[in-house]
Amino acid sequence: MKASIGTRSVGSFGVVALALLGVSTLSAVTPAAAGGQNAEVTFTKDVAPILQASCQTCHREGAIAPMSLMTYEDARPWARAIKEKVSTRMMPPWYIDRNVGVQSFKYDRSLSDDQIATLVAWVDAGAPRGNPSDMPPPREFADRDRWHIGEPDLVIPIPEPFVVPAEGANWWGDFFSDSGLTEDRWIKAVETKPSAEGFPVVHHAVTRLQETEDADTGDFLNEYAQGKNGDVFPPGTGRLVKAGSIIRFNLHYASIGKETTDRTSVGLTFYPKGEEPEKELFSRALAQNFDLDIPPGEDNVRHDSYHPFTTNVRLTGFQPHLHNRGKRQCIEAILPDGNTQTISCANWDFGWHIVYNYADDAQPLLPKGTFLHTITWHDNSSANRWNPDPRNWAGFGQRSSDDMSFTWTSYYELDDEEFAAAVEERKAMTDNNDE
Length: 435
Ligand code: HEC
Known about the structure:
Blueprint: H1 11-21, H2 43-54, H3 72-75, H4 79-87, E1 105-106, H5 113-124, E2 154-157, E3 162-164, E4 171-178, E5 185-193, E6 202-210, E7 219-224, E8 231-232, E9 237-241, E10 246-253, E11 260-262, E12 265-270, E13 279-280, E14 282-286, E15 301-308, E16 312-322, E17 326-334, E18 340-347, E19 356-358, E20 365-366, E21 371-378, E22 405-414, H6 416-434
Parallel strand pairs: 9-13
Antiparallel strand pairs: 1-19, 2-12, 3-11, 4-10, 5-8, 5-9, 5-12, 6-7, 6-10, 14-22, 15-21, 16-19, 16-20, 16-22, 17-18, 17-21
Residues 54-55, 57-59, 64-66, 78, 81-82, 85-86, 91-93, 109, 111, 226-227, 351 line the site of heme C.
């Protein structure tokens, strides 16, 4: 029998439910003695491969991060900061709680415990260069004009090019563009992409489908972030773009010391006319809490909200949605028999809007009658660097000085037969893993 881990239930039910959620038993975390006692950890042999794989998409000339980490000369002055940011898991930006819930994701850019131990050991050893012949060849990066989903059928840019001044505060805002579609179309892939020139100033871009400009929900379309390259939906699934849809672009721009013009676009690839996928992929704002009460100066202010699923669903991803005072969000499933299972917890940093997409074999399977329970914590104290004013009470609202709490969820529905088959498949997989 499996042992109880945190709030998870135990016993045979626990095993089934863990399987449903794609949670495998956590292995004990071994404080890795990186490189062993004697082997010296060096930049060329041990550190450069990690920086190439996990840092350089952002940390290179002309990308969004403040400094390059391409060479030894680039990285050496930042050794202490690297130790501090990776050991606190502030970098790379990826804020999933590793101690609870589903642990397997697509586009997971986090470091393993061993990789962190290697970076820390390198800094502690005085950040040695090592043997130049160990240095791996430089990483090649894709052309900035390239669409990772292939050439889209329709490209919709923001209405006008946007000029980001050489110096200035971070800028967040929305743009609306008409899709120009005169009939409903199903899409099989979508990508949001800065223009080649705008690439270094676009911190993130989130696109949504709306019927009108002032609608505040609508369907989530796609998120651009460095290291994530568009969404090609699983075969047989698609998203419906209705005739007359408006694309809402939510952009975060940051200045880079020289005036830079961007024109971010979204690219759509359609199913052939008249062809419909078997399943519609939904991305919805669920468990919205309109009743927030966040007292001035207070930390760890908790709110709970719920969404009932009236059909069986396969959850493919989620993104917490909070504003400046957000601190953390957990989502759990309250199953029809009353048992609860934590799905995921993620810390929140207003500077990063990260979508967490579950790996195919870990996508939570939620039977109809499940309630999605969203638990959110806000920090209205002065310790929160994004807090506009810790002396103010905050409640729900659209302005960024107001706050919010809901969960963007991506999912598709399964009928009873499909659901039973998916559960069987998951159980078989988990049983094999246990052997
Ligand atoms: C998705 C893009 C991205 C990735 C991947 C990324 N960084 Fe960063 N990093 C940034 C940005 C942007 C900043 C500055 C703003 C911030 O801190 O949020 C930053 C800041 C930092 C800082 C602080 C710099 C300072 O001014 O003090 C360090 C150190 C750092 N990153 C190290 C790393 C390391 C090491 C990795 C890989 C293990 C990494 N980062 C991966 C985007 C990224």
